[in-house]
Specification:
By secondary structure, this protein is of the alpha/beta class. It contains 15 helices and 15 strands. The strands form 2 sheets. Strands 1-14-15-13-12-9-10-11 form an 8-stranded mixed sheet. The chain has a 7-stranded mixed sheet with strand order 3-4-2-5-8-7-6, with helices on both faces. Strand 7 and strand 8 form a beta hairpin. Helix 1 packs across helix 3, helix 4 runs parallel beside helix 5 and helix 6 runs parallel beside helix 11. The N terminus and C terminus are likely disordered.
Length: 481
């Protein structure tokens, strides 16, 4: 029980650090020492899982020839797709100011997709590691990346990195950074953060050290003994990994997966960033129907429609860095104008969302309307076992029940068997199925051509990809024998 709770705390720190400290204190009935120990254990386990899941592929597992063969093809295809669904490189001029170091965080397994989106926007990547991608760009990137990154959770400005095996090193390294470049004499600077595989593991102590270092630096520069912190809020975050500390300022505010269109969700909602990733991995095409037979609140169809119409995921929301003087209002006006100009209103793309629950379809329809893609998303009631081709080319992309929050394991396994038999009649249709059940292929009745390891919340999942028709698989098998 304590391992599961600690893993939840760590995951929240990675994906949504705002307010995690207070939530952890309320929901976890452990002593402070237990929490520190549990956090270290959970952190190490999460990173071990990510590294063991084919880290060179950022989550892809290619343990048979068919999977490996497709991997190289899809890498190129994904880069091509990213370039097609984002505005052209250089469509907005870079600001005249100095370049900044940025960090985009993401769910484990999505690093490659985030990197490709950054590449397509024309920025220079500097590093990639579990759950984050770094890049260097001008001030315009704060507006454009917040507006366009579909698979990232947050965008940060990185002030710098340094080795911090001790509290003294953390204090001195933090104090040496140019915080006044962002934070004014009256601005607020709350501190959050986390540490993984480091000698400094007490989050509250690290918070206090970082806060004091900032106060010393800013107080000395502005000639103040007591900083009022009544102005603009700059959320500071530290990340200590293997004794290397990185200090950052949050540029997103509300997490990027909150697009602003999902007023309600079903019992087991899929995060928008993960839904967008599933759609991107499936390589949506104008002439191919994309169908989610377990659509729930229709997050996958909505994200697919936004991708294919080039509708910017951040076009209907605001960001905390809009209040930062370093990023003047004109940058945001230009970014929103670019997003409006890039949208494709002549797209012929169509996506279906069906579900056996009629009540959730009303929620799905409202979400599609708020997202501005109701004309691209067709929603209707249907049992997933009754999907037919209708004479069309198609791709199934879905997030069926796992047995974690909906249904018993026996019910879920029976469902997997049923859809496996039913969908085997769909001919050349491709299928992309996300589930945490490690025996999915056994119950589904077919070995996937490729499995990509992803995280849905704190659940380690597999995206089971079936992209080769059954007759082609038979031919490959004969050749090998």
């Amino acid at each position: 029980m304590w391992r599961r709770a600690a893993l939840l705390v760590f995951y929240r720190l990675i994906a949504d650090p705002q307010g995690c400290e207070s939530r952890a204190e309320k929901c976890c009935p452990f002593t402070e020492n237990q929490m520190r120990k549990n956090e270290r254990t959970a952190s190490a386990q999460m990173y071990s899982d990510a590294e063991s899941a084919g880290r060179s592929e950022h989550g892809a597992v290619t343990d048979n020839p068919a999977r490996a063969e497709h991997s190289a093809d899809t890498d190129t295809a994904h880069r091509t797709r990213a370039a097609e669904i984002l505005p052209p490189r250089g469509s907005m001029p870079e600001s005249d100011g100095d370049c900044l170091d940025y960090v985009a965080t993401c769910l484990f397994g999505l690093e490659r997709l985030v990197g490709e989106e950054i590449d397509a926007l024309g920025y220079e990547r500097t590093f990639t590691m579990d759950g984050r991608v770094g890049f260097r760009a001008g001030a315009d990137a704060a507006a454009r990346c917040n507006m366009w990154l579909r698979t990232a959770e947050r965008l940060y400005a990185s002030l710098g990195s340094f080795t911090a095996p001790t509290f003294d090193a953390l204090f001195e390294g933090t104090k040496a950074l140019p915080w006044e470049r962002f934070i004014g004499r009256e601005d607020a600077f709350p501190v959050k953060g986390h540490a993984v595989r480091s000698q400094l593991y007490s989050i509250p102590d690290c918070q206090s050290i970082v806060k004091k270092a900032l106060a010393d630096r800013l107080g000395g520069i502005y000639g103040l003994r007591l900083l009022p912190e009544t102005g603009v809020k700059y959320q500071v975050e530290f990340f200590i990994f293997k004794d290397e500390a990185t200090l950052m300022i949050d540029l997103s505010g509300t997490a990027l997966h909150k697009r602003g269109y999902r007023a309600e969700a079903g019992d087991a909602p899929l995060r928008e960033t993960l839904a967008a990733a599933l759609a991107l991995i499936s390589r949506p095409r104008e002439e191919v129907l994309l169908w989610d037979p377990f659509c729930g609140s229709a997050t996958i169809p909505i994200e697919a429609a936004m991708i294919m119409t080039r509708r910017a995921p951040g076009c209907s929301r605001s960001f905390c860095s809009e209040e930062f003087p370093m990023f003047p209002p004109q940058l945001w006006r230009d970014a929103r104008e670019e997003a409006a100009d890039a949208e494709r209103r002549d797209s012929a793309f169509e996506t279906f969302g069906s579900d056996i629950d009629p009540d959730i379809l009303g929620v799905a329809a409202e979400n599609a309307r708020l997202a501005g893609v109701s004309d691209r998303v067709k929603l209707f009631r249907l049992d997933a076992r009754e999907v037919t081709t209708g004479g069309r080319r198609g791709t199934i992309v879905c997030n069926p029940p796992y047995g974690e929050r909906m249904g018993t394991p026996e019910q879920i396994h029976r469902l997997y068997r049923d859809i496996g038999r039913s969908w085997s009649e769909l001919g050349r249709w491709q299928k992309y199925i996300l589930t945490s059940d490690e025996e999915f292929e056994r119950y589904f009745g077919a070995r996937a051509d490729k499995v990509r390891r992803l995280y849905n919340g704190m659940l380690r999942c597999g995206l089971y990809q079936y992209f080769k028709p059954a007759d082609k698989k038979g031919e490959r098998k004969k050749k090998r024998t």
